[in-house]
Amino acid sequence: MQFQINYKYIQSLVLLAICFTTFAQQPDTPFTQTGLASYYHKKFNGRRTTSGEIYSSKKLTAAHLTLPFGTKVKVTNLTTHKSVIVKINDRGPHSKKKIIDVSYRAARHLGMLNGNGIVKVFIEAIPIIKTPDDSFRQHEAQ
């Protein structure tokens, strides 16, 4: 008895198995953190950030100690419940009491400009989703 192997059939089974294991995996839990936020002083406007970008007080950017550059983060002021989405492009803050430094524009959105400029915030990294054309993009929060 002669036994023939149908390689296309085996390839289809392997591809199907890969698809099932990929879809069965639970998505990673997004990065979240609660703590104090401050904002960049206007004197830093025009200076180079750690990522190489030039800081602009008019952009929605922030500094975080560990999140990768380019990560988008939703920052929510826990007192006013105002939120803003910023892009991480710098390292900091350099105080152990704070978890994020936001740009002047982001601080204005969060209502941080009154008082001492430090507020308690909740930050959540916006997850990256895979699009049908196999490219990756960061999901924009509504």
Q: Explain this structure to me?
A:
This protein has helices spanning 7-24, 104-110, and strands spanning 32-39, 61-63, 72-77, 83-90, 98-102, 119-125, 128-130, 136-138. By secondary structure, it is α+β, with helices and mostly antiparallel strands. The protein has one domain (32-131): RlpA-like domain (Barwin-like endoglucanases), CATH 2.40.40. 23% of the residues are buried. Residues 21-26 have low confidence and may be disordered.
Helix-strand layout with pairing:
Layout: H1 7-24, E1 32-39, E2 61-63, E3 72-77, E4 83-90, E5 98-102, H2 104-110, E6 119-125, E7 128-130, E8 136-138
Parallel strand pairs: 1-5, 2-4
Antiparallel strand pairs: 1-6, 2-5, 3-4, 3-6, 7-8
- Structural classification: alpha+beta
Stretches with pLDDT under 50, minimum 5 residues: 21-26
Order of helices and strands: HEEEEEHEEE
> What is the residue-averaged pLDDT?
84
What is the CATH topology classification name?
Barwin-like endoglucanases
The count of β-strands is 8
CATH-defined architecture: Beta Barrel
Distance between the first and last residues' Cα: 63 Å
Radius of gyration, in angstroms, nearest whole number: 22 Å
